[in-house]
Write a structure and sequence with these properties.
- It is a single chain.
- The protein is an alpha/beta fold.
- It has one domain: Thiamin diphosphate (ThDP)-binding fold, Pyr/PP domains (Rossmann fold, 3-Layer(aba) Sandwich).
- It is 43% helix and 20% strand.
- The strands form two sheets. Strands 1, 2, 3, 4, 5, 8 and 9 form a seven-stranded parallel beta sheet that branches. The protein has a two-stranded antiparallel ribbon with strand order 6-7.
- Helix 1 packs across helix 2 and helix 3 packs parallel to helix 5.
């Protein structure tokens, strides 16, 4: 297993100007690793990060969109895997951060903890490329490929929690953050 914060710092180094959609605990850790107006936080809508990512990818077809989803969140909206594979956005990378629990809600275990294969579900749904990582060295070595192959791409990151980030909702989801995001994506939006 790798620490989530270390995986995110590794991703932050290669992110470039990609839009990153994150949710719940991953959102706090991502914002700590990579503050940017191109971060979109999907908090308060468990299970919708992948749908938000899909909408952004379709609206900005020439711009990379990365989703940092939770395993519990994805379980709330499994149909999104089929929807994403069907829409086939070449610019979407969907990471599922698998820690086996609903961490934001008291760390209760997810159904099928330790048995469910998110990579297997994505593969069966029809994702163009699917990966699974449980170690930081391999993740770091293969991340350039994950971010460059045509999508939709799906990757499971098997993680343990890192150092607790500050749980500051204003910092990740306040009006100023939302306004900065809208301004940052405006140049990339499809006009067709």
């Amino acid at each position: 297993m790798m620490r989530r914060d270390e995986a995110f710092r590794t991703l932050a180094e290669l992110r470039g100007d990609a839009v990153v959609v994150s949710t719940y605990t991953s959102a706090f850790e991502w914002m700590k690793a990579a503050r940017s107006p191109l971060n979109f936080v999907s908090v308060g809508v468990m299970g919708q990060a992948s749908s938000h990512g899909l909408g952004l990818a379709l609206g900005m077809p020439d711009h990379k969109v990365i989703v940092l989803d939770g395993d519990g969140s994805l379980l709330m909206n499994l149909g999104t895997l089929v929807t994403i594979a069907n829409a086939a956005p070449r610019n979407l990378v969907h990471f599922v951060v698998e820690n086996g629990c609903y961490e934001a809600n008291g760390s209760h275990p997810i159904p099928g903890q330790g048995r469910v294969s998110f990579a297997g579900m994505a593969r069966a749904a029809g994702f163009a490329k699917v990966y699974e990582f449980d170690g930081l060295n391999r993740f770091a070595a293969e991340l350039p490929e994950v971010l460059s192959v045509p999508g939709p791409v799906f990757a499971t990151l098997k993680v343990v929690a890192g150092d607790p980030p500050p749980q500051d909702y204003e910092l990740i989801h306040g009006p100023g953050v939302r306004a900065a995001f809208r301004a940052a994506i405006r140049p990339f939006l499809s006009r067709s």
